[in-house]
Known about the structure:
Largest sheet: 3 strands, antiparallel
Oligomer: single chain
Strand content: 5-15%
Mean pLDDT: 76
Helix content: 55-70%
Structural class: alpha+beta
Number of strands: 6
Amino acid sequence: MYDEALREIAGAYARLSRADEVFAAAEAAAPARSTGSDRTGTVHAVVGRDGIPESFVVDPGWHRALGATGLAGAVAEACAAAGTAAWEASAPSGADPREWFTRLHRAFTEDAPAPRPAPAHRQPRPLDAVVADALDHLGPILAGLGGTGSATGTAAGGRLSLTLDPAGSVSCEADPDWVSRQEAGELGEALDRALAAARAGLSAGADGMARAEAVFGELFERIPRQRREGAR
Length: 232
């Protein structure tokens, strides 16, 4: 039972650790803020060093450029453009920014686990309890690795929603009838409110992942190295 559990836990923990290292390296190299716009230059997004949107601006005249049905797609385009700018700026001079994606691919596909040093614990818990705790955290971690660790925020009574994931992907839904009655400033404010709610959801998810990582670190601290290697 333990060997099978260890194989599953070791694989998830290794992918999580390696992907986290790639994201940390890219984040450290990225500018503090990057901006991007949709193809019409009407909706503008600012993303932080972590690639997550921080604010939006909608220009006057958006009715002509986008129409009520075009706002949601323009928001996603602006965020994608800002994220691309951040990734490109984070690449060393003369390097191909796609190298970050290559490194991420390796992080998710290579087999050899690379666990981080485990945190110190005053009183070790029984191994059974540590394994059970790790298994409880495994589902959410695998969901996050599969790209489902997203968070959604809404504004205007649910007529506008933004969904973020930890990698910076953004999707937007907006009720065209509501959109058609808004001014540019009102749309920008509503987008920022929905964004704040979505970012709060991501922050809560990050806290859970940090707890999971601590549990996995405890598990790897308790299991003899030779048994971990035999469970690969």
